């Protein structure tokens, strides 16, 4: 047995060839080239982290952790704090989630549980096309169409509320605002929630639904009390992914948020976000502490999105593995 | 057994509202498309494709330089991102195993999740800070963004090729690299091409990293080392300007960009759907 295996191996032209020969034949060489390309990914990512860290050194040393809590952004006095941008990013993203999560999960339930497969596939195709629309085009629509629309709608709502307007709905409204940014972002992230949540819901085993229906549950009770809880971790994952996208989204937000670095409770006021302050001020920053501070804003943004993405992947993985069992 | 009225009502209302959610989501697409096609379609003319932008106040002009600029930037991005991503994907699907593969996969997802503006900062500090705004730095920024998606789609489509094909080729005496090149990759070719097309469609609308790499240019950008106008960056600059004539140009540019992105997208999805008999969607 052993001897016959050796004979076969010896008879193969490439079986026992020397290293040089194998390299010349291209086998090891191609593996090496592929390996180098895979390593490139590690190198680029490491270089990116390294650059963000070293280039923000000036700002990190000058401001320390106070950078995250300082609400002043004054290029003239060279006093920089990221708080207004962190706040703006968080509030616009939360607002976007507030709109997009019910919309997205609702649509995903319809597409996974109710719609006939052909209709569901067609609708999903269209919704995924919406996800492919470049953010600058959503920003264009947001700035030239949505903002003027809100300029008509919001004042009339304010008139209706009169003196009873809550704090987040107070102050003057000029169109470009935290509110507009939240609405525009919700349009951009809803397709992600729909498409991932639908996949997760479709992965829920059929017998669970049949069992619930057999017990006399209505279609909705089956969906809401059996199917959705089973898929909840995957749905959470899709929401985290959408949130990571919303936090890093630049162009659409920059165009409608107003680019004013101030800390305000009102959604109607202009604001700014981490990504949009980088986009709007980076080329103006002559260098030194100003540029370094903007890069540190980028570093903070990078850190937050990494954490969210990691969490999202773990959640989606957990659900799909459960479904596979 | 009769259902209570309340349960029936809740059932009907909630199911209907999920339908409404779907209609809203799909309606948003048609809202975006409708506006772009109407506004953009009316604003578009032959000059748009052949002329340079005019100074403020002067009517007319086009975006020929931005169209060419975008094409050049995307060419560099594709030449950089697709081969690296593809070969790394081949490595992951065919060679790598264990901890190293997991590390690469994890870092790829990480790279994919990085906001595009941060990639822009990276390319700025590494290249632009030394040699100035240029066409090639814009291409490199977009190329970096293409790598993770190229990798994951290559890996996914190669993995869907049945192992028996590989075994068959190797049993005939083919080396591993020959097996991959002549059997595995051709078997997955539809998926690979469509994956690359979707990848290209995604980065062709990217604006943020171009703002401080390719920058912008009112004129033609000869060669590869000058700053250049690109379609998405021009849309941004023109849209936020106060001039109605520039808004008109921005609509036209948005129309052209969106049409390109959607055509690439739909073509790619059709290629996959028509090719796979066992798996679609």
Task: Walk me through this protein's architecture.
- The complex is a heterodimer of chains A (325) and B (281).
- Chain A is an all-alpha fold.
- Chain A has 2 domains: 13-55; 82-324, MetI-like (MetI-like fold).
- Chain A is built from 14 helices and 2 strands.
- Chain A has a two-stranded antiparallel sheet.
- The model of chain A is unreliable at 1-15 (pLDDT under 50).
- Chain B is mostly helical.
- Chain B is built from 12 helices and no strands.
- Chain B has helices at residues 5-43, 46-50, 64-95, 98-113, 116-131, 135-159, 163-171, 176-187, 189-204, 208-211, 231-239, 244-275.
- In chain B, helix 7 (163-171) packs across helix 8 (176-187) and helix 9 (189-204) packs antiparallel against helix 12.
- The radius of gyration of chain B is 23 Å and the shape is globular.
- The chains are: A mainly alpha (325), B mainly alpha (281).
- Chains A and B meet through helix 3, helix 5, helix 6, helix 7 and helix 8 of A and helix 1, helix 3, helix 4, helix 5 and helix 6 of B.
